[in-house]
Amino acid sequence: MWSEGIVSPLFNAVLDSGCFPDVWSEGIVSPLFNAVLDSGCFPYVWSEGIVSPLFKKGDVANYRAITLLSSLSKLFTIVINKRISSCCDKYNTVSDAQFGFRKGSSNTDATFVLLSLVLHYLNINTRLFVAFIDLKKIVLISSIVMLCGTV
After folding, report:
1. What angle do the packed helices 29-39 and 71-91 form, to 10 degrees?
2. DSSP string for 61-79
3. Cα 97 versus chain centre, distance
4. Residue 26 has what DSSP assignment?
5. List of residues 6+ apart from 29 with CB closer than 8 A
6. Which alpha helices (DSSP H) does the chain contain, by range?
7. Where are the domains of the chain?
8. DSSP 8-state code for residue 51
9. For the segment 51-103, what is each residue's pLDDT rounded down to a tens digit?
10. What tens digit of pLDDT does each residue of 93-137 get?
11. How many Å apart are CA 107 and CA 45, to the nearest integer?
12. How does DSSP classify residue 92?
């Protein structure tokens, strides 16, 4: 990670300059990413990161963990995400009920769908059962169970 302080700004400057278009196709990045894909092994150093707490509005104890990762790791995951997303879009494999982590979808969309369902069931005088589950501490609880064997 120590080299990240030098490599990342240099790498960004090269990409932003537009002077080296072959850095993707013939240069450094494409062969490196293809080697990672061909080997099936994600470089361990790309998984290392610096975790920093970021204060969110509200309660003093309301923090969110932000992990600073390698620039190459971020670029690689962006490329993979775009490929997977385009494949899912092409073959229509993601449900319309999936709102999280989808481009063009948000909590507002999910709220609108829920409101529409509630209004529909009110109009036809039928019960609608809805469950709201808060999963924000699930990672902490599952980590404790894995480490200690109990909560």
Report:
1. 70
2. T-EEEEEE--HHHHHHHHH
3. 18
4. I
5. 23, 72, 75
6. 4-17, 22, 29-39, 44-47, 71-91, 107-123, 138-148
7. 1-93, 95-151
8. E
9. 888 888 877 677 888 888 888 888 888 888 888 888 888 998 888 878 777 77
10. 888 878 777 778 888 888 899 999 999 999 999 999 988 776 666
11. 34
12. T
